[in-house]
Amino acid sequence: MSRTLDHLFDRNVAWARSKTRDDPEFFRRMAEQQTPRYLWIGCSDSRVTANDVLGLDPGEVFVHRNIANIVHTSDMNILSVIEYAVEQLKVEHIIVCGHYGCGGVERALMAERGAILDHWLQPISMLHRKHLATFDAIRDETARLDRMCEINVEMQVRRVAQTPIVENAWARGQELNLHGWIYRIQDGLLRELGPHLSSIGERDALPSIDQRVLTPVGGAAPARRKAHTGRANRARREAATGCSCPAATEERA
Asked: In this predicted model, what pLDDT tens digit does every residue of 38-71 receive, in sequence order?
């Protein structure tokens, strides 16, 4: 195995040339300033990169990533990122995005305990132990892990909303929206889980995360919601008209 990474420098040169060929002003614009509207708080998983998932160019999304997309309110790293994004960049949206099959969340559910990593994952582990009977009732291991991945996203959105940084922004009338999303690597689609928060009042009205453990969560990706809505509308028309022919059931895109 080579001890150097010359092949990555070669790929970098090819990428830069390609971007310049397609858009001669691309790097000049990037160098002038960054004005992202979004802060993405995601997992460090190498398969879940914000710009690719969102279809955005560099400069359009400010990114923080860590194992299992956890918001530790004592972590100076993430607090600094949130403060800079909110107070300097004036982002309008903070997206906490987890993903199904998360290895960090899976580790948090194990009995094996270590030092640094398990300290980091402790909020997930504690919630899981607190509601162990509820999670153990989900017989399928994959479904159980995915459920915990969803709950983790909801918990971290609440933690972002509880920071003085976000509270102060809302108190001074700054437009700031919080979103809880989850990504499925198998199909490349995002799903909106919630909660969606835009004010202290909305945050304070939320049910507790313990209540959410006991309530089904999950959301369809927008493209799939549209498809599902189309099928439901066709079914209703067929029931009303007694006709299932394409001409009577065609949905406009």
From this structure: 999 999 999 999 999 999 988 899 999 999 999 9
Query: Of 17, 47, 129, 225, which residue is the catalytic one?
Result: 47
**Given the residues 99, 107, 144, 191, the one annotated as active site:** 99
Query: Is 45 known to be catalytic?
Result: yes
| Residue 181 near residue 192 (C-beta atoms within 8 A) | yes
Q: Is 70 left (phi over 0), alpha (psi -120 to 50) or beta?
A: beta
- Of 64, 93, 97, 102, catalytic: 102
Indicate if the pLDDT at residue 238 is higher than 60.
no
Active-site residue, 43 included? yes
Comparing C-alpha atoms, which of 236, 239, 240, 28 is closest to residue 251? 236
Helix runs in 70-214, H state only:
76-83, 103-108, 116-120, 122-130, 132-136, 141-161, 164-171, 200-204, 209-213
89: left (phi over 0), alpha (psi -120 to 50) or beta: alpha
Active site residue 102: yes
pLDDT at position 232 over 70: no
Pairing of strands 93-99, 61-66: unpaired
Q: Is 245 a catalytic residue?
A: no
pLDDT in tens, 62-102: 999 999 999 998 999 999 999 999 999 999 999 999 999 99
Catalytic one among 43, 144, 149, 212? Answer: 43
